[in-house]
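A quick word before the example. In earlier lectures we treated sequence and structure as two separate objects. From today on, think of them as two lines of the same record. Here is Calpain 12 written that way.
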Amino acid sequence: ISALEPGSAANPHKFRNQDYESLRDGCVKSGSLFSDPHFPADQRSIGMAPDADPKNAIRWLRPKEISKDAVFIEGTTGTTDICQGQLGDCWLLAALSSLTLHPTLFAKVVPSDQSLTESYAGIFHFRFWQYGDWVEVVVDDFLPVRNGRLLFSHSRTLNEFWSALVEKAYAKMAGSYSSLKGGNISEGMEDFTGGIARSLKISSRTPLALWKLITASLSRGTLLSCFIQVANVREIGTVTPQGLVKGHAYAITHSDKVYNKSGEVFLLKLRNPWGFVEYCGPWSDKCKNWDEVDSAEKKRLELIKVEDGEFWISTEDFSTLFHTVELCSVNPDSLAVDEEGQYSSPSSWTITSYQGAWVPGCSAGGSSKYERSFWKNPQFRLTISELDDYEDEDEYSADEEDGKTDALTLAPTTKLKDKATAKPKEKVMKCTMVAEVLQKYRRQKDKTNFLQIAFHIYMLAGESKPLGQKFFSSRLPVARSGKYQALRGIRRKVRLNPGTYVVVVSTFLEKEYHLPLETCRQLIFAEDTGGRSRLTLPQTVQLLSSLRKLQVRLCGAAWLLFTVSPIWDEWFQPVCVCVCVCVCVCVFVCV
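And the structure line, produced from the sequence above:
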């Protein structure tokens, strides 16, 4: 997207058609403070039933009514500023904590032209990335308060309000505060940067290789977070003997190394968005390990013995205690970091994105266990021809078996514990590709849970489109995203031989989101951007009849529905049936 094109960071779309400058100027001219009609200061914006106890009633106050010393940003932003409130959105705040380490990225999300003093009009604006475009969201500064304290995100100093207002703007975009309960760190990272995120199993790397990868990623501006996986829902929020919270998102803010009597110690610095509950194991703030470190080194590492949610941990202990690292590359070129964390030579990336929908009875074929219908899923063809400018090990492995979701059988991978005895993998020249599939607007649509989705990549050998049942029944994919997951987005970085491929995106169950049409008196159509339009039953029957005729003309070819733009634009994008699931597929190809 060019700098001034609608949807770019410099010229974002106006959410709810609200223009910040005109609204602010109007309030300044009239001497009034802005009140947002699209996100009112009442229980509807909270999205939860009110507390039955009158003592816990929520009041909506402006910052200057909460703190007489209220400021938008006090000095400069820092990771110690953000604390989580009574809302399960640690995933969002961990991503926001990571963002504060990058001033340029932060200014893109939080424009600097706003304050609680100069030209104050009770209105603020923020920018978020949404499925290929940047969106500007305007909010008033009424914030929910209970017993004199902010109910949700807040600053540790209690008089700084930028984080609370960012959270409010994101909640408005999602529909309500309650819509932010539970999420994946990568979701927040992508929406704050427009980048592409991927998950890394910590057990797949040795501690030293992991430290090198994290160090290189941080130096390239990559946002990093991590968490401890839980065995069941009851474990979420429980604290380990080492003071770590299970199922909770932590931001990785720095990496460094120190020397003691035993030699080099590789360290990572983590941040708990709560602002408290810290790690108490080796190399924690008050641990005796620091007694062996020179005072100048401790000063350089900014070792502070206070419970502020930020702490150091050795990479060895980190690898034992944590399960997953989430990496969000702000631009495609930052993805070119090899498994040892070394920079590759400069490379260029081609970005291609597609948008479409799973339509029941047409392009919703389910997983590959549905052999008769899998071919109906959306198919995206791409050709990669130029090899990488650097050598690397083949990164693809089927680290997650699909089990019942897929009938595929792939070669087992080498486990970490066997790496010492395994033969070194041969360095090969291939083409790097990052593929991502996003479910659009699921969080906004009546708080519907995400569907279980995955994608498979097949190599073509001269086949013409569309590909039918026979092709998929006789071929195995060369790469896949892993098991079906109920996430907003799934992504995978793979290295493939030059050639032509087809990417097939699918849901776990065939028609798992289908609503019985015979029980519907009317169907809701169109993307819900400014309200919902309704069709009468006769209009619906006529439209569905036209769609069926179109499907017959195309012989059920889901491929054509996604590649022949005149047909797709005319029939499907403007009239996406409510039972469809809109998707956005992004592919980064290193050339």
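Notice the following. The first strand starts at residue 13 and ends at 14. We will return to this example when we discuss secondary structure assignment.
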